[in-house]
Specification:
The chain has helices spanning 2-29, 34-41, 45-57, 126-143, 179-186, 198-209, 269-272, 274-280, 288-300, 304-328, 338-341, 343-357, 376-386, 393-398; strands spanning 32-33, 61-64, 78-81, 88-95, 99-106, 110-118, 148-156, 159-161, 165-169, 174-177, 193-197, 218-223, 227-233, 236-237, 332-335, 366-369. By secondary structure, the protein is of the alpha/beta class. Strands 6-5-4-7-11 form a 5-stranded mixed sheet, with helices on both faces. Strands 14-13-12-15-16 form a 5-stranded mixed sheet, with helices on both faces. A hairpin with a 3-residue loop joins strand 4 (88-95) and strand 5 (99-106). Helix 2 crosses helix 3 (45-57). The radius of gyration is 23 Å and the shape is globular. The structure holds zinc ion (ZN). Zinc ion binds at residues 250, 260, 262, 264, 267.
Length: 399
């Protein structure tokens, strides 16, 4: 009897794992033939058919008419997730210093609708921010065709405790903000609201479907007013004891430098953040994205001062990165935020700097711009929300 219970449990676990594997594969790779799903899972065609049937019954996937494949034998049916408003979707939120965004995102990270607005630099309370996000979300859901919303993910430029509390967000002026709770009060129907650091979530999105896909060891740098970062090691995020790892913006790099928003002196972001860049260019250091965009345009036009500002700043980017590369031995460094847009002016200098400061065996690191662009963190927030369902999709739909 005991043995039977054990076997029953084991087979339920195997079935759950197989269902998860099939849906996760479709989510990451898109429509796949039943026979290819057999190769992915190592299961027979009929076993895959039964699992696909289960996912179909709970409205997650559908089978498309198969195309004749030119070879003999029956062509394999194609399986895809339900897309558009016919499938389940999540709400993705992003709160940065200068902007905030909401998107409705379906399986496969298809963005069904998105709103992004500028955010005031004045310190806006979390309560007011959440109220604005709630209004944007309502419009987004309607524009997306009112799909079923199964959960939400939030990317925020701050240190996030497990449980969705923002411990501190120096550039937002927030301390101990129960962000998940505030959002839950606005969205009573949502089953889950998960909050993560914006750089960690951008790294997750780049690793799953961006430039870092297939790379298990990477460092992601997100640059705007503050400098955020995330380290992925052996395929998993390095989160640290309290979940706060990756605060690369506050690595001390200049003992004779400026005071940072965190209160310390000479943090990396005081040399490579947006304010440092604009200050070097003699522009309004609080000019935000508009002024950064103007500086990039000037550099593209060949303006000597603008080019020199990027060169000098890139030297500091390389200086800080060299330390990180020596410690973490990544395969790839992804530059996001404003340094994705300015990559053509900073990439070479950063690589040169690494060549002289990184130990020889660790120098094979690739330095590349983010490929998901401004939406990287937002897509990562959507991934975070889908991660609630993907490990046990049928139970999530039926319990
Ligand atoms: Zn700092």
């Amino acid at each position: 009897m005991v043995q039977q219970v054990g076997n029953g449990l084991r087979s339920a676990t195997v079935r759950t794992r197989n269902l998860s594997q099939i849906l996760t594969h479709l989510h990451l790779e898109g429509a796949t033939t039943r026979s290819a799903l057999g190769e992915v899972t190592g299961l027979t065609r009929s076993a895959v058919g039964a699992l696909v049937g289960e996912l179909e019954a709970v409205g997650l996937v559908r089978e498309l008419p198969s195309e004749p494949n030119g070879s003999r034998g029956r062509p394999s049916p194609v399986v895809d997730f339900h897309d558009g408003a016919s499938g389940p979707a999540v709400l993705a939120f992003e709160i940065l210093v200068d902007s905030m965004a909401v998107a409705v995102v379906g399986l496969g990270c298809q963005v069904l609708s998105e709103h992004r607005i500028a955010r005031s630099r004045e310190q806006v309370s979390a309560v007011d921010t959440v109220r604005d996000l709630a209004g944007m979300a309502q419009r987004c859901v309607v524009e997306a065709g009112s799909p079923e919303i199964i959960g939400a993910g939030v990317a925020v430029a701050g240190l996030v405790r497990r449980g969705g509390e923002v411990a501190v967000a120096p550039n937002l002026g927030w301390v101990d903000v129960a962000l998940a709770e505030l959002l839950a009060a606005e969205f009573a129907d949502l089953r889950s609201i998960d909050v993560g650091n914006e750089a960690q979530l951008a790294a997750l999105a780049e690793a799953r479907r961006g430039v870092a896909k297939g790379f298990g060891d990477l460092i992601y740098i997100s640059a705007e007013v503050g400098i955020g970062g995330a380290v992925v090691s052996a395929g998993g995020p390095v989160v640290g004891h309290g979940g706060f790892a990756g605060e690369v913006g506050h690595i001390p790099v200049n003992p004779a430098g400026r005071t940072c928003a965190c209160g310390a002196i000479g943090c990396w972001e005081t040399e490579v953040g947006e304010r440092a860049l604009l200050r070097r260019a003699g522009m309004d250091s609080d000019g935000g994205r508009v002024e950064v965009g103007r500086l990039i345009e000037l550099a593209r036009e060949g303006d000597a001062t603008a080019s020199e500002v990027f060169r000098e700043t890139a030297g500091w980017i390389g200086f800080g990165l060299a330390g990180l590369v020596n410690v973490m031995n990544p395969q790839m460094v992804v530059l996001g935020g404003m340094y994705r847009e300015a990559f053509e002016f900073v990439g070479d200098v950063v690589v040169d700097r690494l060549a002289t400061r990184v130990l020889e065996p660790l120098r094979k690191v690739l330095v590349v711009p983010s490929s998901l662009g401004a939406d990287a963190a937002l897509l990562g927030a959507a991934e975070l929300a889908f991660d609630r369902m993907l490990p046990d999709p049928v139970r999530w739909r039926t319990s």
